[in-house]
Amino acid sequence: MAIKKKSEKISASTDAITSSLKETRVFAPPREFAKNAHIKSPAQYQKLWEQSVKKPEVFWGKQAKENLEWIKPFKKVLQWKAPFAKWFTGGKLNASANCIDRHVTAGLGNKAALIWEGEPGDSRTLTYQDLLRETSKCANALKALGVTPGDRVAIYMPLIPETVIAMLACARVGAMHCVVFGGFSSEALADRINDCGASVVITADGGYRKGAVVALKQNVDVAIERCPSVSHVLVVRRTGTLVTMQPARDHWWGEFLGRMSSHCPPYEADSEHPLFLLYTSGSTGKPKGILHTTGGYLLGAALSAKIVFDLKPSDTFWCTADAGWVTGHSYLAYGPLANGATIVMYEGAPNHPDWGRLWSIVEKHRVSILYTAPTAIRACLRAGDSWPAKHDLSSLRLLGSVGEPINPEAWMWYHEVIGGGRCPIVDTWWQTETGSIMISPLPGAIPQVPGSATKPFFGVFPDIVDKNGKPVPAGSGGFLVIRKPWPSMLRTIWGDDERYKQQYWSQVPGVYFTGDGARRDKKGNIWIMGRIDDVLNVSGHRLSTMEVESALVSHKLVAEAAVVGRPDELKGEGIVAFVTLQVGFSASDALRDELKKHVAVQIGALARPDDIRFADALPKTRSGKIMRRLLRDVAAGRNSNQDTSTLEDLSVVAALRADSED
Ligand code: PRX
User: Fold this and answer.
1) Same domain for 515 and 638?
2) End position of a domain, from candidates 531, 556, 587
3) 458-508 tens-digit pLDDT
4) Tell me: the pLDDT tens digits for 11-52?
5) Which of 537, 539, 541 to mutate to test the pocket of ligand 1 (most atoms within 8 A of CB)?
6) Does the CB atom of residue 531 touch ligand 1 within 6 A?
7) 543, 407 in Cβ contact below 8 A?
8) What range does the domain containing 451 cover?
9) Whole-angstrom Cα Rg for the chain
10) Could you tell which of 332, 490, 542, 571 is best to mutate to test the pocket of ligand 1, judged by most ligand atoms within 8 Å of the CB?
C-alpha cells in the first residue's frame, strides 16, 4: 500500500523558520476502509471542503442541525465582529443532554458509554443510562452546593469515571468546568482557581500513578488555603487514603450524591453560554484561561470526532489523554459521547506494571480506534516490539496522533507494529484554543504522509505567511494562521479580552495566529514545524518558559533564570534551565537536585528541568534582553551560528557551555 518515493530534500527559509524534509512515503487509504468511511475519496473531501470555506454559514448551519439536538433552533449561524465570534445565536441546547439524554431517548440506554480501567486492574462499565443517572445526581449535588449557571467549578481528579461525570454535570446545570491536570501542584491549582474564582472543587482522596498514590485531596487542602472563592469541596473516595475532611466545607461524593435525585432537567443554555475554561501556557505572564462556549464547541468536537475518526456506532474509542488537557475534553468526553460511541478510559501509567499495559487494554476491551501522543508512541517503540507482540491487536482499525509533530520513525512503528500495516493513521493538528481538530488526513479519503498533518478539516482555512502576513510559496516555512472563524474557536481569554486580541489576532492583523511554524509542500500537505514562541512542548503538553523561570527564581538562592527547550528523543522537548545564584552562594550537584525538585513542587513533575546549568551571568544583549536563541543552541550542544554582535559579554557563553551536567 505504501508508495515509496525517491527521497528528496527541500530546504527553505523565511525570517524565522528553516525546514528540511526527507520524508516522501505516501500511504493511500486502504480500499476496504475507504469504501465504508464517512468520507470516501479525495474528490469528496475536496468538494465538501471547498463548499465549507466558500459558504461557511451554509455548511455550519447544516452541520449544526444534523449533528446537535437543539432545545430551541438558532436564528443566525455566525455573528462576526472580529475578533469576537458568536455562533448559532438564538439557539438553546445543553451539552450533557447532547452527550447522554438523546442517546437514551434513541434506545441506546443499555449501550456501554464508558469502559474504565483503574491502574491496579479494577474496572467499571457505565451504560448511557448509568451515565445519565450519575450525571443527574452530580448535577443536583452541584445545585445543592449553591452552584448556578455561569459559576466555575474546578475539577482536580485522577482519570476515573467521576471526572467525566463531573464535567457533564457542570454542563447540565450551566456551570463552567475548569479541569486542572491532577499532575499539577497545589500552587498551580491555586493560581487557576483564583484566576477563575471557582466556588466548588471536585477532587478525590487520591489517584493511582505508577503504583503509588497521588495525594490529590491533600493538594487541594493546601491550595485552597489561599483561595477565598471556594466554599465547598466534593471528594470521591478512590484510594481509601486517609484525608482530612473539614466539616461543612468538604463532602464525600458517595454520601452526598446518594441523597440526590437521579432526575435533573438540563439547563437550557444559549448557544454562546460558556461551557468550560481550560488553562494553557502562553509565552508571557500567567496561564491563560481559554474560554469555550456551548454550541460551537460541541459542534466542532462532535463533527471532527465523527469524520476524522470515522466513528461508527460499533466503535470502541480510546483516547489516552488525561481530562486535564483539551484532548481529554474533546476526544475523551464530548466528541465521542456526542456521537453515542463507547469510550475507554485508563487511569494510570502506560508502563504499569509493564510496557504491555496499553496493548493489554486494547486486547481486553477490543479497542477499534486508538488516539495517543507521539511521546507515548516513542516510549513504547523504545520498550520494544515484544510487548505489543504478546497481545491480539486485531480489533484496531484506526490510529491517531496528537500533541506534537510525529517523527516518521515513530509513525512507521505505529503503523506497522501497532496497526499491523492495515490501520490508517490520522496525525491531527490542533490546540486548546481551536477546541477541535483543524488539520488532519481523513482516514478514508486523504493519503497519509508520515510526519505531515496533511489537509485542513472542513470549514478550516489555514494559510502560511511571512511576518508581514504575505503567503509564502510552497516549500517555504512560515507562520501558520487561520483565515476564517470556526465554531469551536476560543471566544476569549478569561477576564482579558485585550490579551486575547493581542496574542491571537494582532501579530498578523485580522487572522488567527496559531504560534506554530509550518510549511506546505507541492501537494498541498501541511507540515507543522513546532512553536515559534517561547513555549515548550514537553510530552505533547505546552509549558511556558516564563512559568518555569518564575518557579526557579522563587527559590531563595536563585538570582536569575532562563529556560529553553532542547530536542529530546522521548519527550519531544526537554527543559534546560540556566541559572545564576545570589551573591555568596555557589553551585553544587545537591543544589541542582534541589532546584529541580523545587520546580516540580511549584508547577508539577512535568515541568521538572532535565538539566540545570549554573553561570555567573546569562548572555544578554546590551539592552538587557536574554538571548534565548543562543541559549537554545548551547542547550542542544550545537555550535551556534547566531549573530552575537549585540551580546554584551561573549565569555558568558563559553562559561555556560562548560557547565554541562552530561
Ligand atoms: O505546537 C502545536 C502542538 O501542540 C500545540 C497545542 O498544544 P495544546 O494547546 O496543549 O494542545 C495539544 C493537543 C491538541 C500546537 O500549537 N501540536 C498539537 N498537535 C500537533 C502539534 N504539532 C504537530 N503535529 C500535531 N499533530
Assistant:
1) no
2) 531
3) 999 999 999 899 999 999 999 999 999 999 999 999 999 999 999 999 999
4) 333 343 444 455 679 999 999 999 999 999 999 999 999 999
5) 537
6) yes
7) no
8) 2-67+428-531
9) 24
10) 542
